[in-house]
Amino acid sequence: MKDLALREKNIVLIGFMGVGKTTIGKEVAKRLYRDFLDIDEVIEKEYGMPTRQIFENFGEKEFRQKEKDTIVDLCHNQRLKVISVGGGAFLQEEIKEACLSKCIVFFLDLSWDAWQDRISSIIDSRPVLQGKNREDMRHLFDQRQPIYKDHHYKVTTDNLNVNEVADFIVDRLKTAWNKVDPNPEQQ
Ligand SMILES: Nc1ncnc2c1ncn2[C@@H]1O[C@H](COP(=O)(O)OP(=O)(O)O)[C@@H](O)[C@H]1O
Ligand SMILES: O=C(O)C1=C[C@@H](OP(=O)(O)O)[C@@H](O)[C@H](O)C1
Ligand SMILES: [Mg+2]
């Protein structure tokens, strides 16, 4: 696929697990009348089981390979999608490179203090949190932050509800689109 116009590019949400990528991605897609894809859901559908079971039955290595193949393929062959990737996706350079070169990447940032309030709602479904105490989680949280450093836009989500974050993202996009292409329908 040739290089896309800014308005046609896929929008990708990145950030640590539990920051709200899946929930907010759906809302952004609704507001833009676009299809939404959550990479974990795509992989879960293919395997017919939840991520945690994929890790248990096939191992993290296989999950990461599938994650890479799925995201890189979408980046190169799809347009106009809103895509939420898993919190570990940007550990892989090929994923990072494909997303940053082909898509518009939003980093959803959340402080450690605010993130801790999410633990009870995500703990059972996140394989990488299994068996970890608070200190281990803090270590993982800190260790992961550098992988999100490269992005196009950052949204600090502390004190913002889901609708407010989605509105913020859509507002940022519309400003950027209008800057490069103020009258798209006249072309
Ligand atoms: N801005 C927000 N404020 C409060 N709760 C949120 C917010 N964004 C997401 N959540 C909640 O946090 C939990 C994790 O959200 P999820 O979308 O699964 O995160 P991710 O996909 O980044 O792992 C869900 O219970 C969701 O309802
Ligand atoms: O951070 C990670 O390594 C992971 C995050 C998860 O996605 P969310 O970020 O949507 O929770 C999911 O891809 C898998 O459990 C691994
Ligand atoms: Mg998710």
TrEMBL record:
GO biological process entries: amino acid biosynthetic process; aromatic amino acid family biosynthetic process; chorismate biosynthetic process
Gene Ontology terms, MF aspect: ATP binding; magnesium ion binding; shikimate kinase activity
Enzyme category, top tier: transferase
UniProt-listed Pfam families: SKI (PF01202)
Subcellular location: Cytoplasm
Swiss-Prot/TrEMBL catalytic activity: shikimate + ATP = 3-phosphoshikimate + ADP + H(+)
Annotated metabolic or biological route of this protein: Metabolic intermediate biosynthesis; chorismate biosynthesis; chorismate from D-erythrose 4-phosphate and phosphoenolpyruvate: step 5/7
Entry binding sites for substrate: 40, 64, 87, 144
EC numbers: 2.7.1.71
Cofactor mode of binding and number, as noted: Binds 1 Mg(2+) ion per subunit.
One Gene Ontology cellular component: cytosol
Cofactors that this protein relies on: Mg(2+)
Domain of life per record: Bacteria
Keywords (A to Z) from UniProt: Amino-acid biosynthesis, Aromatic amino acid biosynthesis, ATP-binding, Cytoplasm, Kinase, Magnesium, Metal-binding, Nucleotide-binding, Transferase
Protein residues bound to ATP: 18-23, 126
Keyword Cytoplasm recorded: yes
Residues that bind Mg(2+): 22
Subunit text: Monomer.
Family statement drawn from the similarity comment of this UniProt entry: Belongs to the shikimate kinase family.
PANTHER family the record matches: SHIKIMATE KINASE, SHIKIMATE KINASE 1, CHLOROPLASTIC
HAMAP family: Shikimate_kinase (MF_00109)
Function according to Swiss-Prot or TrEMBL: Catalyzes the specific phosphorylation of the 3-hydroxyl group of shikimic acid using ATP as a cosubstrate.
Name by which UniProt lists this protein: Shikimate kinase
